[in-house]
Amino acid sequence: MKWKVKEVAELVGVSVRALHHYDEIGLLTPTETMESGYRLYSEENLETLQQILFFKELGFPLKEIKTMLNNPSYDRKEALVLQRKMLVEKRGRIDQMIETIDKTIKHMEGEIHMTNEERFKGIQFTSNPYEEEARKRWGNESVDEANKKLQSLTKDEQHELSEKWDTIFKKLASLRKQSPESEEAQAAIKEWYDLLNNNFGQYTLEAFRGLGQMYIQDERFTKNIDQYGEGLAAFMSEAMTVFANKQNKS
């Protein structure tokens, strides 16, 4: 089922103008646009919109929300768990401030006496640890820069890049039974290193090594990479470490 922009606005309780703005900045692009010009939103669009509105309620700027949603390691279920923790924390702070306000009114009316400590109970300026976790997990600026570069490519250029990506992964998959230190493996890993640097921003050798570690530490990366061949993520991780170490010595 697809929904028109007015239907989504009425369903969710946001303005049509807001939805148009999300589309303009590339935060939420409708799945389909009809010849008549009507934007059509899919079920997946609604799921993304829910995420946007939760993060917005929690005080995240739209630019940061876009960065997180575009992060390759973004996981909606993990985000929902974090959003729930942030909202529970926010609810606790609000409940505490309401209690402080009630006590302050009673203090002003002479019913109770408040200490200075009680007067400011619940008013916090420290950041929410779960918010910091969300920003750290998905708010990498380098990802935002990479997405900017990708969005600047034409469809033909994006298709060409996708084919290069696919070719390198298939080549590495065919080599995964060899030693990661082998000449062929290192040549293929250099192709991967060059593709990343030419298309996704500047990767230092340390960042490249760290990316390889993420391939085996984050099960979502492992699962996606191992679609090309079981054990490929571990092979690439080790080959990337070998490559970075060799380049540092040269």
TrEMBL record:
Pfam families: MerR_1, TipAS. It comes from the Bacteria. Keywords: Activator, DNA-binding, Transcription, Transcription regulation. Residues 2-71 form the HTH merR-type domain. PANTHER family: HTH-TYPE TRANSCRIPTIONAL ACTIVATOR MTA (PTHR30204:SF90), REDOX-CYCLING DRUG-SENSING TRANSCRIPTIONAL ACTIVATOR SOXR (PTHR30204). This is MerR family transcriptional regulator. It comes from Aliibacillus thermotolerans.
